[in-house]
């Protein structure tokens, strides 16, 4: 069965990345392909591409072979693309000539991959020829460290955005069907459906990022529990050995490796989102004490305009470990609700924010605590009221959700929020 990834791969973003990774950019070799009829339309069908390139390789008697579908386990980074395996020829640059031929035939070159063989096996250039890690990482090992904490950036290409988009649309449409037409107008339902779609797509994309990071960690021999995987960006942090660094340098999915930091915490991470303010404050306090961080949880009255119930100050120390980044990594690993806390940097004791005084903490309608009242608050509350297990509201958010002052939160409050947005009240 053909892999249906070409609509995703054939995007402008994928082009710039995959073109560079699939083929180097040397000067074209002397062998030319001038007397070739150019195809009228772009060719993306993998079987057609394979047949065309195989015929060209046979005609030129290159020491190469063209593969499709049979190579996925060998080269997962080229999943969905046609792969050319070739032995290095000192007289001619085989990938360059094949690339020239593909362009002449209107074959989209970012639907291709090239793998050099040496003695019949995939050849990986020396790490020294293609360093991905910063000098600070190597310096740490050279100083005698057995493991070094690093942050690793990896590729996002290959994620099927079209499928994620379609699934999110279907989920949002199904959600809209659960809304009471007697309570909401058609425009309100459209707004709530759109907000639900945005969140569903974001959650699905985060899951794809996690899956990719997990695969890379497995290839490096690192357990997921020993890493911090970012939910919305292609990064993770972990400790690696010298041998794992070498493997990471040679992993085609990894873009960059920089020296990071390490921290400890005496409790295992759970799987549920933590949103209760007192629990979050207690967790941050424990992290700060166990790692002797220049940070502290402060009383909310000092930053009355901040909607998040938990506020952590941290000191910026030039040349020192960033306590702020450790706090953010900790929040990622321990699934702390991003609306439950905020971190504020201090430079020489001065907060790097505008400090307000004596402001009202309660903002009726601001359910997600983003300091605004919009349709996203209505959507979150509607999901919460219909017992969506993924709809998490902090204690402060629940106070803000009781818009009509009834002492309980229900769909009547959702209607009240929408009326506020529409300026009907």
How would you briefly describe this protein structure?
The protein has 425 residues and is α+β, with helices and mostly antiparallel strands. It has 13 helices and 12 strands.
Record the SSE blueprint.
Elements: H1 6-9, H2 12-22, H3 46-60, E1 64-67, E2 82-87, H4 94-104, E3 112-118, E4 121-122, H5 135-142, E5 148-154, H6 161-177, H7 186-220, E6 228-229, E7 235-240, H8 242-250, E8 254-259, H9 277-291, E9 295-298, E10 310-315, H10 323-333, E11 341-347, E12 350-351, H11 375-385, H12 395-401, H13 411-421
Parallel strand pairs: 2-3, 10-11
Antiparallel strand pairs: 1-2, 3-4, 5-7, 5-8, 6-7, 9-10, 11-12
Helix pairs in contact: 6-7, 7-11, 11-13
Structural write-up:
- This protein has about 425 residues and is an alpha+beta fold.
- Helices cover about 40% and strands about 15% of the residues.
- The protein has 13 helices and 12 strands.
- The protein has helices spanning about 5-10, 10-20, 45-60, 95-105, 135-140, 160-175, 185-220, 240-250, 275-290, 325-335, 375-385, 395-400, 410-420, and strands spanning about 65, 80-85, 110-120, 120, 150-155, 230, 235-240, 255-260, 295-300, 310-315, 340-345, 350.
- The strands form 3 sheets. It has a 4-stranded mixed sheet with strand order 1-2-3-4, covered by helices on one side. A 4-stranded antiparallel sheet has the order 6-7-5-8. A 4-stranded mixed sheet has the order 9-10-11-12.
- Helix 4 links the parallel strand 2 (about 80-85) and strand 3.
- Helix 6 crosses helix 7, helix 7 (about 185-220) packs across helix 11 (about 375-385) and helix 11 runs antiparallel to helix 13 (about 410-420).
- The radius of gyration is 27 Å and the shape is flat.
- The model is unreliable at about 1-40 and about 355-360 (pLDDT under 50).
